[in-house]
């Protein structure tokens, strides 16, 4: 098994001791990418949950691109929200990135997220 740290300047740098993503080659033809939770720090205080979610998904897209993958490679998503009342608005934006065969997913309301953002999304992708 080989492990490669994936980093792009097109998404926010890690805020702590973690990587934007880690790509693992588990077999000669299979790569797995574990993308750390992405946030939209610059939009969190503006109160537009759809703009915040859009930026989070674009951050994920930039990391996928750096790893030579795209949204179709995502097999699992985890969405953490500050307020489950925003679920429909988040889901609307999130769904645009998966027009067919969306990944498995869970959405969890949490008490607080880093930097007091409203949504954080992490994904696992396979190639």
UniProtKB/TrEMBL annotation:
This is RidA family protein. Belongs to the RutC family. One of its GO terms (cellular component) is cytosol. One of its GO terms (molecular function) is deaminase activity. It comes from Spirosoma validum. InterPro entries: RidA, RutC-like_sf, YjgF/YER057c/UK114.
């Amino acid at each position: 098994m080989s492990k490669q740290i994936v980093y792009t300047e097109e998404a926010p740098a890690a805020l702590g001791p973690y990587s934007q993503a880690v790509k693992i080659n588990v077999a000669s033809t299979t790569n797995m990418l574990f993308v750390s939770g992405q946030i939209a720090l610059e939009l969190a205080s503006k109160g537009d949950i759809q703009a915040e979610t859009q930026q989070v998904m674009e951050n994920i897209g930039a990391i996928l691109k750096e790893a030579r993958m795209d949204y179709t490679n995502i097999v699992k998503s985890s969405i953490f929200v500050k307020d489950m009342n925003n679920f429909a608005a988040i889901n609307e934006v999130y769904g645009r990135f998966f027009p067919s065969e969306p990944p498995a997913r869970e959405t969890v309301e949490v008490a607080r997220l880093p930097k007091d953002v409203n949504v954080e999304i992490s994904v696992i992708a396979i190639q």
